[in-house]
């Protein structure tokens, strides 16, 4: 075993030994590959892990069609500009929220465990689509089939709690449930939002105030009511912000920019990142670029490491 592997690597290695499904194993090994420092001492280990991923993917392809269909109930590939997963206990209103945000109906009932498998819906935010994942309530018999894999790969986790006199207890239980799967949980809360649903239950307003004060330094709390459409638009904006992405519009020299379908990049991306997103050959062939930024830049020539912002227009010259 090469030296100087970070502690996070060994945490993932421990989880790999406990993993049951092929998708979960692939996800964990990919995390390990992202963590490993690249130098001569790790070359063999990196090669070995990549070989394991390839072998697992081959094994998955050989599995019977029935099994692959079963896997799809508990593992949903990312789609759109980002993936947001809603998790919580029974009757927190996850399905109602996903339905309200996407405008697409999701099976909803007054009894617990209505949602039996993962369901995806697409939420339109201005000119992009964001993938929302509705999940079975925590405590369902199938929780271990999807929970670890899905929360590790999601771009944003929306912890959903129904307003009651026990919101603080539910919050702590959910956080404890996530800890084994998110080793960075105590270091960074960047992708976890707390959505308190059922704001219409005004008799618990005092509980909400106390909860917000207790968690204000740890998480962003968003009170909403899916039933009465309260703060749903605000929640859409917060979900977009939590993905930490920017939209970039391309422009062909001498023509108007294409403002219909933006390229989506992570915040902090530069011109070179954008060029590669438009076409892989542009990274080597690009001579220079121009950027338009509303109210600030009008076709300014920029360097390859120029940092882009949301809604910039980029013209690549090759």
Q: What does it look like?
A:
- The chain folds into 3 domains: 7-70, no CATH class; 76-242, P-loop containing nucleotide triphosphate hydrolases (Rossmann fold); 245-317, Beta-grasp domain (Ubiquitin-like (UB roll), Roll).
- The termini are far apart.
- A 6-stranded mixed sheet has the order 2-3-1-4-5-6, with helices on both faces.
- The chain contains 11 helices and 11 strands.
- It is an alpha/beta fold.
- The longest helix is centred in the N-terminal third of the chain and has 20 residues, at 43-62.
- 38% of the residues lie in helices and 20% in strands.
Compose a concise summary of this entry.
This protein has 318 residues and is α/β, with parallel strands linked by helices. It has 3 domains: 7-70, no CATH class; 76-242, P-loop containing nucleotide triphosphate hydrolases (Rossmann fold); 245-317, Beta-grasp domain (Ubiquitin-like (UB roll)). The protein has helices at 7-18, 22-35, 43-62, 65-72, 94-102, 143-153, 167-178, 205-215, 232-242, 271-278, 282-285, and strands at residues 83-87, 119-125, 128-134, 156-162, 192-197, 220-223, 245-250, 263-266, 288-293, 297-302, 312-317.
**H-E string:** HHHHEHEEHEHEHEHEEHHEEE
Q: How would you describe the shape?
A: globular
Could you report the average pLDDT, rounded to the nearest whole number? Answer: 86
Q: How much helical structure, as a percent, in the residues? A: 25-40%
What summary fits the major beta sheet?
A: 6 strands, mixed
**Widest beta sheet: strand line-up:** 2-3-1-4-5-6
Total tally of structural domains: 3
Second CATH tier, the architecture of the largest domain? 3-Layer(aba) Sandwich
CATH superfamily of the largest domain: P-loop containing nucleotide triphosphate hydrolases
CATH topology of the largest domain: Rossmann fold
Unreliable stretches:
none
């Amino acid at each position: 075993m090469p030296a100087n592997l970070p502690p996070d690597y060994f945490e993932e290695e421990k989880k790999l030994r406990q993993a049951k499904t092929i998708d979960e194993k692939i996800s964990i090994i990919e995390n390990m590959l992202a963590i490993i420092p690249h130098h001569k001492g790790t070359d063999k280990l990196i090669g070995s892990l990549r070989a394991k991923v390839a072998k697992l993917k081959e094994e998955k392809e050989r599995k019977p069609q029935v099994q692959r269909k079963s896997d799809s109930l508990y593992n949903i590939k990312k789609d759109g500009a980002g993936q947001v997963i809603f998790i919580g206990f029974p009757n927190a209103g996850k399905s109602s929220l996903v339905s309200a945000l996407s405008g697409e109906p999701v099976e909803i009932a007054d009894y617990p465990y209505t949602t039996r498998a993962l369901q995806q819906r697409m939420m339109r935010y201005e000119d992009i689509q964001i993938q929302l994942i509705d999940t079975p309530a925590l405590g369902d018999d199938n929780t271990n089939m999807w929970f670890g894999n899905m929360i590790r790969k999601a771009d944003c986790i929306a912890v959903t709690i129904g307003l009651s006199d026990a919101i603080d207890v539910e919050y702590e239980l959910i956080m404890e449930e996530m800890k084994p799967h998110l080793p960075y949980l105590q270091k960074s809360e960047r992708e976890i939002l707390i959505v308190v649903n059922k704001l219409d239950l005004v008799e618990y307003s005092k509980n909400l105030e106390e909860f917000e004060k207790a968690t204000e330094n740890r998480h962003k709390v968003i009170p909403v009511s899916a039933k009465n459409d309260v703060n749903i638009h605000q929640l859409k904006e917060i979900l977009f912000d939590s993905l930490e992405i920017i939209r970039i519009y391309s422009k062909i020299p001498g023509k108007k920019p294409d403002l219909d379908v933006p390229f989506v990049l992570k915040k902090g991306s530069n011109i070179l990142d954008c060029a590669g997103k438009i076409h892989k050959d542009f990274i080597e062939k690009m001579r220079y670029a121009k950027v338009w930024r509303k109210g600030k830049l009008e076709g300014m020539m920029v360097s390859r490491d120029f940092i882009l912002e949301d809604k910039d227009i980029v013209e690549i010259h090759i």
